[in-house]
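Allow me, if you will, to draw on your knowledge of protein folds for a short while. The matter concerns a single protein, recorded as an amino acid sequence and a row of backbone structure tokens. Could you please explain, in whatever detail you think fit, how the structure tokens follow from the sequence? I remain grateful for any guidance, and I place the record below:

…
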Amino acid sequence: MAEEPRHRPGSTETSYAADFLRFYRATVTEKCRALPVSELRRPRLPSRWTPLELLSHLAHMEQRWFVWGFLGEQVEAPWGDNRNSEPDAAWSVPSDRTLSEVVEFLHAVAARTEEILAGHRPEEIASTGGRFDEDPPELRWICLHVLQEYARHAGHLDVVVELAGGPTGE
């Protein structure tokens, strides 16, 4: 499993955020890869999401906050869902989309996030015109929000993987 980031003297706030984001991405990806293909699309909780949908949601969430939110750039389907065409299928992943494709998208989003974190200070304010029209947050707030969302959903995924007979723990 992914190794939790360690303290490194001289590290910056954004480099720590990048380290923990790497850890959580690796953790949720490994959890999904530990499941049989049939379990990736099987909902096990009353909320009905599947592990593949959760992984896709996390990739879109990260892009939504850093690219669309912080940079203010337009992105295709920032919510990554079908909320406009199918309100009850918010996290749905097309049936022909594979785990490898979702992971590839997550890696592309991660590369963009790494660039953003390496090139900006935590106190910088997000742009307007993308996600934010007024009162945009600081990059540090966005980092903390995205980290809490990864942590929360990694815990959800822990439960689902355990119910499916997969590995437990980090």
In short: The CA atoms of residues 130 and 138 lie 15 Å apart. The domain at 25-81+106-163 is CATH 1.20.120 (Four Helix Bundle (Hemerythrin (Met), subunit A)). The chain has a mean pLDDT of 91. The chain has five helices and no strands.
